[in-house]
């Protein structure tokens, strides 16, 4: 479960009903209790509404406020320590695996892209990150194991394969893939999203979806919608894209790109038409 406060998922791409983990929930309760106690104490001391509070009750309220503040501070400190430890552990793993891949140390397989030279890699890392690769690379589970220490991913270009492998080793997207300011970087994210679905790497899929959702606008929404419809995990991204199409219907539907999109995606055009009619019917009832 991704926490909406301390979770790694981007804030713009959380579920409609945000979830919260137990430490964050308890810390929030303690902070709210502290603020409420402070408000009550201040009101009592100043004699709000003409009431006079006994000194013992004021002292008790002050003690409760201090206790709530201390508990909230301890819980927040515990959360920070846990987050720092997680970041240190992630950095340790990222630097170790990333260095091994970048330096080509003890590689035992090469991965061939659709174009360009093959890229050396480690069977153990590929098999650990993806069950699909595990079945492909383990001869006792697959009679057609890759021959000659080579596996081919023809659907990925060389730069896309490099980013894909880098994510398997480090768990992070390269800046060239994270930025969506150019058509090339957008193409890489689309390719990585499809690869994450095909080779069963859900963490990569969520990272790509978050970045595509954050950069979505009327100019690129049709391309993102088309890719989201192709992957099994793209339900939330597709829903967001459909919402963007409906919100900017005139700009999207009358664009030059929409004609080619409609030729390739008749089913999605039906969904768009239904969504627009539903919006119009709702506005009419209102």
TrEMBL record:
Q: In which pathway does it act?
A: Protein modification; protein ubiquitination
Matching entries from SUPFAM superfamilies are given as:
POZ domain (SSF54695)
Pfam families for this protein: BTB (PF00651)
Please give the InterPro entries that the UniProt record associates with this protein: At1g01640-like, BTB/POZ_dom, SKP1/BTB/POZ_sf
Query: BTB domain: which residues?
Result: 107-177
* Role this protein plays: May act as a substrate-specific adapter of an E3 ubiquitin-protein ligase complex (CUL3-RBX1-BTB) which mediates the ubiquitination and subsequent proteasomal degradation of target proteins.
Name of the featured protein: BTB domain-containing protein
């Amino acid at each position: 479960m991704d926490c909406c406060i301390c979770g790694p998922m981007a804030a713009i791409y959380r579920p409609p009903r945000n979830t919260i983990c137990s430490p964050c929930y308890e810390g929030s309760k303690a902070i709210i209790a502290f603020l409420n106690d402070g408000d009550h104490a201040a009101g009592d001391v100043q004699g709000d509404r003409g009431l006079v509070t006994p000194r013992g009750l004021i002292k008790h309220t002050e003690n409760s406020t201090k206790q709530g503040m201390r508990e909230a501070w301890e819980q927040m400190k515990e959360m920070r320590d846990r987050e720092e430890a997680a970041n240190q552990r992630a950095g340790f793993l990222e630097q170790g695996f990333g260095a091994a891949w970048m330096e080509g140390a003890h590689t035992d397989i090469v991965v061939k892209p659709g174009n360009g030279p093959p890229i050396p890699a480690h069977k153990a890392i590929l098999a650990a990150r993806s069950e699909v690769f595990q079945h492909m690379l383990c001869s006792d589970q697959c009679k057609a194991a890759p021959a000659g220490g080579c596996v081919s991913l023809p659907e990925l270009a060389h730069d896309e394969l490099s980013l894909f492998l880098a994510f398997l080793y480090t768990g992070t997207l390269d800046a060239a893939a994270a930025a969506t300011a150019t058509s090339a970087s957008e193409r890489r994210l689309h390719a990585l999203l499809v690869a994450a679905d095909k080779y069963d790497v859900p963490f990569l899929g969520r990272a790509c979806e978050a970045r595509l959702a954050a950069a979505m606008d009327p100019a690129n929404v049709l391309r993102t919608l088309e890719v989201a419809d192709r992957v099994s995990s793209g339900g939330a991204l597709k829903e967001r894209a459909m919402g963007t199409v409906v919100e900017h219907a005139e700009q999207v539907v009358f664009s030059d790109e929409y004609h080619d999109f409609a030729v390739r995606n008749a089913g999605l055009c039906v969904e768009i038409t239904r969504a627009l009619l539903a919006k119009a019917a709702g506005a009419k009832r209102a």
